[in-house]
Amino acid sequence: MMTKIVNSWNDFDPLKHVIVGRADHSCIPPEEPATSEKVPIDSTMRGMWGPRPLETVEKANIQLDNLVKVLTERGVKVDRPEPLQWNQPVITPDFRTGSMMTCMPPRDTLLTIGSEIIEAAMSFRCRFWEYLAFRPLLSRYFNEDPEFLWSQAPRPRLSDKSYKHNYYDERISLEERLVRTANKDFVTTEEEILFDAADVMRVGKDLFIQHGLTTNRKAMEWFKRKYPDMRIHAVNFPGDPYPIHIDATFVPLRPGLIINNPHRRLPKEQRVIFEKNGWEIVDAAQPAHTEPPPLCYSSVWLSMNCLVLDHKTVIVEASEVHQLEQMDKLGMNVIPVAFRDAYAFGGGLHCATADVYREGTCQDYFPKQDFDDVTRV
Ligand code: ABU
């Protein structure tokens, strides 16, 4: 009896099976070359590291468990990772750092492309072993699904050569950060392949990959060689001073429709492929909150970090009233789910999940290619 377990080509076809992360044992990692950026200078998190307060872990797990319940009630099968004791140092021949982080956001670690799941080549030293939390699941999929392709991108060494020395100078103004984003000047070098899975937007035959703090050009070249029959696009959002992950910036809701963070608009010349192929890009609604929750690395734009269940149904964080309303106006049935207590552990509803199975096949959503596409790698 053949069992097909893994299949997903985009973020909008009917979701049938998903991984939802866990917050257990999560730590705030010590500063390291790739991460010091995300802690604002005046934040109480500055210089702080170690296990997250237990009551916050418990609250996050309550909301993660509730998400599982909502999904299960709608017929979506849910698997969970096995958290490690994250409060252990990571020591390799090339570096040492004081602790690991979490397995709350599987979206950063696992990238599903068709019947393949790739363990990403992540740039944070504290996330070096994170994939181990998902190994029991991937091992089971491998045993049960004869078509499942289990892959790992080349393991990065994350030596000092992988980062620009002194990139994070505390005196850098916000304006200077924006100049750097526009110039595609990021903390990582091109020494080795580096990417977080959450920087990859999957739209059938096309992968749109954000070039930013967590993903470099070499990764895009790797994708191009790995998938010669797919089209790889490099996108960049100059309005984002901290470009980490595409899923609070540029989010597809269904074929032909994307919501784009209005502070991080896709530049005109990079929009051509969408325009020529009849896609509509609309500004996402404003977040309902002016600040992220305490001890959170992510921005208030987790408001748009939604989980699409099918072309007409989307889960949105319950307090994000403007985003809920916009989804409704865009013709989506909206399921509000409280999730802010989980944000600090690695992000929103999309971050906290990773696709295992969506119905559908690899479609060409961008058949018109008779123009100069500046995004094409
Ligand atoms: N993991 C998504 C975070 C993006 C943001 O902070 O806006």
UniProtKB/TrEMBL annotation:
Coiled coil stretches, renumbered: none
Keywords on record: Kinase, Serine/threonine-protein kinase, Transferase
Active site residues per record: D196, H245, C351
GO MF annotations, alphabetized: glycine amidinotransferase activity; protein serine/threonine kinase activity
Record bears the keyword Transferase: yes
One GO BP: creatine biosynthetic process
InterPro entries: AmidinoTrfase
Family under the similarity heading: Belongs to the amidinotransferase family.
UniProt-recorded name of the protein: Serine/threonine protein kinase
